[in-house]
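Hi support team,

I submitted a single chain yesterday and got back a structure, but I'm not sure I'm reading the token output correctly. Could someone confirm the output below corresponds to the sequence I sent? I've pasted both exactly as they appear in my results page.

Thanks,
R.
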Amino acid sequence: MIAIITGDIINSGDYNSEEWIPVLKSHLSTIGNTPVDWEVYRGDEFQVKLPVENALKEAIHLKALLKCVKNLDVRMGIGFGDETYVGNGVTESNGLAYQRSGRTLNLLKQAKTNIAVATGNTGIDETLNLMLKLALDFMDDWSVVSAEIVSIVLNNKTTSQKEIAKQLDIRQSAVSQRLKRARLDLVLNLLNYYTKISKEIKYDTLD
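Hi R., thanks for writing in. Yes, this is the structure output for that exact sequence:
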């Protein structure tokens, strides 16, 4: 079983692509190789294949990175399932994970939310999507500085506040305040829950 994230950039038309595409591609290159593992296509859409256990962390990390550009955001459908056809690139491949990801992305505008999952298990989907909807209530409102600090922590959870302060050239007390405003504690709680449930997603979901 794999996870597929299909995303499209919100408000991309308001920016020169050079302001955000290098950031997106740079991060995706840490996940895998293009075009086998990820592709950016049609200007402001992307698709990435990754292990189930990494899917939600990478989705939230991508959101934080893109929100480092003021007023930019991203909409993502995360699908889980088998890969039944491997094409020349991820956008040419197929299987339940791809289908669920694409369908979920298409429903997001109507659902008025920016991240949702489709695992194949109704109970897991209801729980995770409710948790995501609650988390998005503050993640959608991340400022540039909040998104920046979330990105730093998700890139390396062992980074100390002192190290972050040095990296951003701010006081350590300011780091603590930014972490609180970003509600990073709740983000990490969500990811810890997902780590536990990902085993169930991987082995016990229904087709």
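A quick pointer for reading it: The CA atoms of residues 5 and 78 lie 5 Å apart. Let us know if anything else looks off.

Best,
Support desk
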